[in-house]
Amino acid sequence: MTGRKLGVVVCQCGGNISDYVDVEKVRAEAAKDGDVVSSQVQMFACSDAAQQSVIQEIREKKLDGIVVCSCSPKLHTATFRAMAERAGLNPYEYTQVNLREQCSWAHTHDRAAATEKGVRLVRAGIAKTALSQPLEKMRVETLPQTLVIGAGVAGLRAALALSDLGISVHLVEKADHPGGQVRRWGTLFPNDKVGQALIEDLVGRVTARDNIMLYLNSELVEKSGRVGAFSVTIRAANGERIPLNVGAIVVATGFEPYTPAPGEFGAGLDGVITLPELKERLAATAGPLTHRGQPVRSIAYVYCVGSRQPAEEGTRRTYCSRYCCSATSHLATVVTGLDPKIHQFHLFRDVRTYGKYEALYERALKSGSLFLRYSEEDPPAITRENGGLVVRVHDRLLAGEEVEIRPDLVVLVTGMVPRANDDLVRVLKVPIGPDGFFREVHVKLRPVETIVDGVYIVGTAQGPKNVAESVATALASVSKAGALLLKGYVDLDPLVARVDPTRCTWCGDCQTACPYGAIDEVEYGDRHIAQVNAVLCKGEGACVPACAKAAISVQGYTNEQITSMIDALAKEVA
Amino acid sequence: MATADTRSPRILVFSTNAISDMGIDLAGSAHMAYSPSVQVIPVPCSGGINPAWIVHAVKAGFEGVFVAADGAECALLSDCVSRSAKVVERAQELLRADGLDPQRVKMAAICSVCAEPFVNHMKQFGRSLAALPMAGAEA
Questions:
Q1: Contact list, A563 vs chain B (CB under 8 Å)
Q2: How many DSSP H helices and E strands does chain B contain?
């Protein structure tokens, strides 16, 4: 017994739990704990009526902790924390026990065993809550200014949208001109906009805005501070270092086209070019396509060059670059528009013109393009023989029959690779994924957020995307940054590391283990101890196993809480 | 009498809030059965597990501890895999020092949709533990 006054709510989940777990027994066993002064079973704990009933119980019995045994905490932690707050209880003195996904639903054929497990789980929840402490969210002010790194299509669009919201933008571009890759491209899929015109329009609008500052030949060299109030330093073209204060950072550094190694699919041979090179050639000409002054009569496109590589070869490029199938199908129709008599052969592994881009593939087919499917194990061979290019491929759709093509031009449909951003990665401290692109928190649930609060990744800096998808992520980051900055403050989760000054003797191991620079050495009386900068700490606990004195732990996951949970789970059920 | 094939050893799983706990949830959502003697404690990150917790669990009566690690997907620690491996190595050293079998600890990366791999790991680990001497006998 700890002297706490805890309440326990066991949810039936309309039968999802109670059909497989004896919820009344779970409640009765929970009630035997000396700290539990209130216990109840609810049909749906998340319903308004049930929450009202629990709020009343918290108030009447002056509970100082609540345990809700229901579904996964992923679903209703926010719901029940808000309920606790409405009842006047600190939301961090609430614990959710996963009685559905990790108990009733996993053990549907053994009610007795599922009930026994449920009893153990609720005991662990009680043990954790009994050792909980009231915590306060950290409220910090935010500055209505942003830094956008990269003035490609995603960065330009993000800057305009932020400007629309009244948020000042410092737009930093490493090159001597804005526009990124799209600036060099001609007609773009799906609606035949011209890349250069698109960029000129965006740049014109950006330069007309009073609250957007564009820095060319410049790069971010320093970053410190925290979400809402970063201090950054830009190194300008003349070497000048410009200090800025911003509330959020949008990373739109884009991609590099994959460069095939010499000899890879004939790379280096006369007449073998890459997809971006063909796009640039088409953008630069209105007349017939030529190569070395001779008209091009036939083209062979080789797909998946640099993308979808076998993992066993040790490459990071196992991913699909997403845009290339659609871009090439579209380009084939552009080429047909220049000269309908050009023969076009598409050597593909799979055609991934997903969604509405399937129409581009159909247009290419109807305009006379031939598609031949090769296998990953048997790629096309490209050589130069007797002064001309020769492509040999075994077409899977013709039962592996060898097809020989003698094109004037071979276009290697190269994918996207991450830019070499080592210095920027070091400054931003944003993690890189296994594919080398910046890593988001969750690809579906938090696709533009990074583990560094207030730093967002957009466009192809995060992974291969087409222009429309890049702009969509840019606008998503604007929504996030706008919600963060326009409110004027942000509340940070207090579940971060904490040092026990009575145990800490300062060895520095926790500081070494922390990748976020969140631990400082401070004076404490006549000695030195570690101190956690709560705003920088991510609460992952990297410092915890590093501490030989068990002097540092993460709030909500303290050594005492975890060991008491283990003891509660291990205890026999009568 | 329970044999190595039928006995269900008690396993404590350390899962991670952002990744592996979701995979374990998914196993339940898909009604993929595993032994009820498997119990889970979610923590923020497998790189932040105190090796002493693992030893405590074995001494408290769990026959095995499974660290359902974040793996390469971890958004919190870029070197989560090696950090988590060090946690397990340290726990095995501590178990060995206490005369306990280090095979009682196992780690594998469980992604947020790794329902089937999780269930398979539980079955395999359960079989491995059942083949070991009863918990405490080696001490």
A1: 53, 56
A2: 4, 4
- Across the interface, whether the CB atoms of A441 and B43 are under 8 A apart is answered no
CA A247 – CA A453 distance, rounded (Å): 10
Q: In chain B, positions 21-50, which contact chain A (CB-CB < 8 Å)?
A: 21-22, 24-29, 31-34, 36-37, 39-45, 47-50
Which residue do the tokens 């971890």 mark? B74
Q: Do A540 and B45 touch (CB under 8 A)?
A: yes
Q: Are A410 and A271 in contact (CB under 8 A)?
A: yes
Q: Is the pTM of this model over 0.80?
A: no
Q: Which residue has the tokens 């006998």?
A: B137
Give the pairing of strands B64-69 and B105-109.
parallel
A219-260: per-residue pLDDT in tens?
Answer: 999 998 888 999 999 999 899 999 999 999 999 999 999 999
Q: The domain containing residue A76 runs over which residues?
A: 6-136+559-570
pLDDT in tens, A478-532: 999 999 999 999 988 899 999 999 999 999 999 999 998 999 999 999 999 999 9
User: Is the same domain home to A286 and A408?
Assistant: yes
Please report which residue ranges of A152-225 form alpha helices under DSSP H: 153-164, 195-208
**Domain CATH number, residue A546:** 3.30.70.3270
Task: Note whether A383 and A237 are same-domain residues.
Answer: no
In this predicted model, what pLDDT tens digit does every residue of A433-480 receive, in sequence order? Answer: 888 999 888 787 789 998 788 999 999 999 999 999 999 999 999 999
- Count the neighbouring beta carbons within 10 Å of the beta carbon of residue A194: 14
ipTM score of complex: 0.95
Determine, yes or no, domain membership for A216.
Answer: yes
In a domain, A210, yes or no: yes
Helix (H) or strand (E) holding A476, with range, is helix A467-486
Q: How many CB atoms lie within 10 A of CB A524?
A: 15
Residues A22 and A119 occupy one common structural domain: yes
Query: Quick one: pLDDT at residue B1?
Result: 46
Test A74 with B39 for CB contact under 8 angstroms: no
pLDDT, residue B5, reads 54
> Does A457 lie in the same domain as A368?
no
Cα A291 to chain centroid distance, Å, stands at 42
Query: Could you give the domains of chain B?
Result: 11-131 (3.40.50.960)
Q: Is residue A324 part of a domain?
A: yes
Cβ atoms of A509 and A499 within 8 Å: the answer is no
DSSP secondary structure letter of residue A14? G
| A106 token code pair | 């996993």
